[in-house]
Each structure stands twice: as C-alpha cells, then as structure tokens.
Design brief:
Number of helices: 0
Helix content: under 10%
Radius of gyration: 13 Å
Distance between the termini: 40 Å
Largest sheet: 7 strands, mixed
Strand content: over 45%
Order of helices and strands: EEEEEEEEEEE
Length: 119
C-alpha cells in the first residue's frame, strides 16, 4: 500500500509559477507521476518519473514548462510548474505505481490539490 499527500496548490496569475509536492508513505519503490482534471474534462496525464529519478516524461501540453523530480530520501515527488496558463487550471493528483502503468492506470492516488491560474 502507498499513501500519497499532495500540497502546494493555490491561485496564481498567468505566467507565474507553483511547485507541487507529493509525500509518499508505505511502499515507496514505485514510479510516480502527476495527473490533472479540469472542470468538465477527463483526468489526463501530466508527468511521470521512475523510481531512480530518471526517465521523466511529459504530456505535450506541459513540455518545456513543467519539471518533475523526486527526492527519495524524503519520499517526495515534485512538480515545478512555470509559465502557467489559465488552461492549466485543474485539480492535480499525485499517483504511484509500476513504471509500465504510471502514465495510464497507476493504482495509487492522492486526494488532489487545486491549481487555479487567473488570466
């Protein structure tokens, strides 16, 4: 079992930055990732990283603006979000699971943190 707790969401103006954190407990030897769900839309993949911190992958919509990283000593994964746009507004969810499914159907989820980008 893995427990995930996100933090760092909030309200920011377009062009601004936020850093999300996700603290993991329990079995933490998994790949980790971030998803988001905007109002009226399906949840979508944002970024993922393997257990060693390598192999980051991103959705096309965030490439060059978002950076995923992790600190295994703190069992924490981060999502640095720069050049935010109003269309980035969503609830952001942390996820964990085997590398093979981390960007599609990870088994473990956090509760989510709201990110709102004003224009």
């Amino acid at each position: 079992q893995v427990q995930l707790v996100e933090s760092g969401g909030g309200l920011v103006q377009a062009g601004g930055s936020l850093r999300l954190s996700c603290a993991a407990s329990g079995r933490t030897f998994y790949a980790m990732g971030w998803f988001r769900q905007a109002p009226g839309k399906e949840r979508e993949f944002v970024a993922a990283i393997n257990w060693s911190g390598g192999g980051p992958r991103y959705a096309d919509s965030v490439k060059g603006r978002f950076t995923i990283s992790r600190d295994n000593a703190k069992n924490t994964v981060y999502l640095q979000m720069n050049s935010l746009k109003p269309e980035d507004t969503a609830i952001y969810y942390c996820a964990a699971g085997p590398l093979l499914v981390i960007s599609t159907t990870p088994p473990y989820w956090g509760q989510g943190t709201q990110v709102t980008v004003s224009s």
